[in-house]
Q: What sequence folds into this?
């Protein structure tokens, strides 16, 4: 399908739809992210929630890559997050000179992400052989091992935790990293590798037969996903200014899972929406005190019973999809919606 | 040597509890192919039921055990009916998320009702017998003996009764079993009742052995029991028992020779290594996918 055909066939309206939303959002967002802290436009508390929102979006989106688009069931996100948090904090507190922190912070965040990505490589290897439930266990064991290892390393405080970080995670940085995550993951999904990722979700054996190098694709998906989890961890550590291994246990992973499945798997807009809904609901329900923690899981169960695919449920906002995708099938990527695999988990297997 | 025997007894006690919980995971998985992530919290509810029954009503050991088991079994059946049954034909991941949600709900609901850790009073008189330098406490004897009895009962039900046969039929082929007249809903309810009941018994025994209980106790113990089930090969009853004792042994040995903070590290690393070399557990058979 040539470019000329594309131009001829799409109405001008539809093309411009994707054209103005993004730049307007980016410019106004970055201006606001500088203006809000500078002029104190919003309450400190709301600013803090916005930072957490950004971190949650990064976490949900990166987990969606593995769990939603690739159809694996990983619960290891907290482990990657803690790796990023500890590496970045160690760098800013003990390695980088105190005067240079302002510009060294991005380097620390990237280093945290890279460290987490390296761990992602380790977790990806068992995923070559096992899938579904057994991969869930491997990633679970990974979370426990990372937590347990950190508790036994004295130079980062062991079980007592690690502190001394400056509050380096500002609103502009959060905005930058959130946009970067959305941009990179979105482009990855609509690239050739992304098609490979989707084909693994639909049917791993068939995609191998079609010439997809499934190992390579899995490796990339895991590494990218854990890189951004590490980035989120680094940001998290520098807003809270205190971390300890117990923060990054299986409950943290569950939080991220809830955001992903609340928003809907296999959808960027879904992850953003899920993270937003989760973050704000948790704050809005604060007057209920302990009962909000009872209400949240109850809502999740009800959601699964009555709308099992989450809020977006494999749909995507039009301006996040490339024009060619909208053209080639009525639902873009989600033309897959009717195939058996789009249920996540590769749908029902024949032999089950 | 004496030290080793002593630790071996501790391992038997811990392993029995893991094995009992692991049975619940493995039975539900065998019949529904669902990892019931709420099972660890069923175990926690069992411990709390034991606390309520013993502290407020002063009921002795055996009826208290039966009440705990029955209560948790009823909870298991209710959760299955309300939360899992509507999702039986839905994508499996929805059911797994629902199970996670039910688990968190149970934890936080219990936390809301009882914000502080509770202390379980002594239920069985704590006598201990010594043979040479090795001491055996009455608690250890009761836990191990009772677990073995419960496992034997379960084995009898699964292998020698009609319901057990139906369970095995469903786990063999879920689509054909109903065609042969197996009442699927009834059998699944029985499976949940049995598995949860064992979890409740484990909860009570755990509460007697480690008498401070809190709403989050089910998370880590539950995951460890789950690992036992996987080590043995999930879906396989014998595997769950063996896996429980293996994990118990590994944990006790680790704490015997290394600082106790290394316990989780060693047991989970072992799991990881085992899964890489034998991804389907000890008794599990690799599932081949037909194309």
A:
């Amino acid at each position: 399908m040539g470019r000329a055909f594309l131009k001829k066939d799409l109405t001008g309206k539809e093309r411009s739809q994707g054209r103005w939303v993004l730049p307007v959002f980016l410019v106004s967002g970055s201006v606001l992210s500088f203006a809000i802290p500078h002029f104190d436009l919003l309450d400190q508390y709301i600013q803090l929630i916005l930072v957490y929102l950004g971190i949650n979006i990064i976490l949900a989106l990166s987990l969606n890559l593995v769990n939603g688009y690739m159809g694996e069931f990983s619960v290891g996100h907290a482990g990657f997050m803690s790796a990023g948090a500890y590496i970045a904090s160690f760098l800013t507190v003990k390695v980088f000179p105190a005067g240079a922190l302002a510009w060294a912070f991005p380097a620390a965040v990237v280093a945290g992400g890279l460290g987490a990505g390296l761990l992602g490589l380790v977790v990806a290897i068992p995923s070559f052989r096992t899938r579904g439930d057994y991969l869930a266990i491997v990633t679970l064991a990974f979370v426990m091992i990372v937590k347990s290892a950190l508790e036994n390393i004295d130079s980062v405080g062991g079980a007592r935790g690690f502190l001394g970080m400056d509050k380096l995670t500002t609103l502009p940085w959060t905005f930058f990293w959130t946009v970067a995550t959305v941009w990179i993951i979105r482009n990855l999904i609509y690239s050739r590798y992304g098609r490979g990722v989707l084909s693994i979700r639909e049917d791993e054996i068939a995609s191998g037969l079609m010439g997809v190098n499934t190992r390579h694709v899995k490796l990339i998906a895991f590494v990218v996903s854990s890189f951004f989890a590490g980035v989120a961890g680094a940001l998290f550590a520098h807003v809270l200014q205190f971390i300890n291994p117990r923060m990054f246990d299986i409950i943290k992973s569950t939080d991220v899972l809830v955001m992903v499945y609340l928003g809907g798997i296999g959808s960027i807009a879904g992850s953003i929406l899920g993270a937003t809904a989760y973050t704000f609901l948790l704050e809005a329900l604060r007057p209920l005190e302990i009962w909000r923690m009872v209400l949240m899981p109850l809502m999740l169960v009800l959601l699964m019973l009555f709308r099992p695919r989450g809020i977006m449920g494999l749909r995507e906002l039009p301006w996040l999809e490339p024009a060619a995708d909208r053209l080639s099938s009525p639902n873009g990527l989600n033309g897959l919606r009717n195939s058996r695999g789009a249920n996540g988990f590769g749908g029902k297997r024949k032999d089950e | 040597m004496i030290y080793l025997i002593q630790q071996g007894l501790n391992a038997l006690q811990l392993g029995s509890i893991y094995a009992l919980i692991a049975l619940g995971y493995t039975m539900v998985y065998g019949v529904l192919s669902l990892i019931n992530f709420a099972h660890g919290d069923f175990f926690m509810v069992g411990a709390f039921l034991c606390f309520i029954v013993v502290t407020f009503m002063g009921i002795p050991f055996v009826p208290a055990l039966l009440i705990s088991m029955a209560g948790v079994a009823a909870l298991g059946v209710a959760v299955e009916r309300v939360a899992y049954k509507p999702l039986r034909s839905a994508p499996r991941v929805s059911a797994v998320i629902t199970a996670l949600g039910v688990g968190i709900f149970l934890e936080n609901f219990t936390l809301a009702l009882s914000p502080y850790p509770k202390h379980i009073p002594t239920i069985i008189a704590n006598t201990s017998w010594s043979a040479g330098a090795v001491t055996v406490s009455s608690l250890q004897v009761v836990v191990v003996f009772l677990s073995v009895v419960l496992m034997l009962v379960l084995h009898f039900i699964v292998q020698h009764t009609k319901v057990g046969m139906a369970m095995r039929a469903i786990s063999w082929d879920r689509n054909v079993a109903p065609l042969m007249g197996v009442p699927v809903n009834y059998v699944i309810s029985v499976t949940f009742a049995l598995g949860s009941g064992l979890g409740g018994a484990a909860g009570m025994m755990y509460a007697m052995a480690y008498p401070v209980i809190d709403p989050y106790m089910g998370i880590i113990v539950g995951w460890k029991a789950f690992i036992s089930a996987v080590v043995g090969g999930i879906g396989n009853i014998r595997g769950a028992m063996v896996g429980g004792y293996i994990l118990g042994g590994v944990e006790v040995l680790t704490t015997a020779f290394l600082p106790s903070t290394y316990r989780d590290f060693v047991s989970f690393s072992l799991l990881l290594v085992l899964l890489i070399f034998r991804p389907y557990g000890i008794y599990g058979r690799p599932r081949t996918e037909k194309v």
Remarks:
- Residues 1-16, 334-352 of chain A have pLDDT under 50 and may be disordered.
- Chain A has one domain: 20-343.
- Strands of chain A lie at 162-163, 242-243.
